[in-house]
Design brief:
This protein has ten helices and seven strands. By secondary structure, the chain is an alpha/beta fold.
Amino acid sequence: MPGRRPETLRFLEGRATLSRSLGLLRSFPLEQSDPDRFYRGLADDTRELLGALVAGAQAGDAGGARGAARGAGAARHDNALAGATVLDVGGGPGYFRDSFADVGARYVSVEPDPVELSAAGLSHESVIRGSGMALPIADDAVYVCFSSNVAEHVPEPWTMADEMVRITRPGGLIVLSYTLWFGPFGGHEMGLTHYLGGARAARMYERRHGHRPKNFYGESLFEVGCAEGLRWAEHVTASGDAELLAAFPRYHPAWAWWATRIPLFREVAVSNLVLVLEKRGR
């Protein structure tokens, strides 16, 4: 598996079960029909993902996650986020805020779209209007910078990824998770028609439903692949700005993470790639 520090994943592997994967799969069709259920479940899953990654990285820095996992606090990975400043790039309507607040994290989101901010009618605290491709955040400002299913919606995803590295403090984590275009969910609400081409899929959706898809190809939905993300992470690692710790399929059970290692096959099979990097000191 791509990545420099496999011990980072030890805590995460225990929760990457088949039942979790099936539960998430069942929730995907609800994104537009029941967004409250979909996004709150995704928010909790994201918080648990980050908590496990932070706990694993801290245990690795302390001399090995295997020993730490036997400790009394290993079952409570959320504790790793307590007091940490966590920045969410593309926070959307605000479902993630409460989930992170529940574990004592200082949650801040950056969202460029006022329509998206008001979509759920939630109150907003610690939200900054701004573009992910030019984050209005100082260098080395946050401990964890993450983005969940946003990179495929911006025209320059690796500019956004570079910005995420910039604002993370040395020793902090950058966690970038995004949907692969050639995976089964690459077309979002357009379904599998995206395999016929993004523009054609958008036209087919419009004819069928009488309105444009929310995620419109070429405007708010773009082709982004697995190999591109791995190349970016390797480039950042080679530059010395950050170190790639792990890359794995977000929604797969741990026993299926091997798919990330197989060129071409991974573009379809991985579905959603997670890149985990640690910011290096200057």
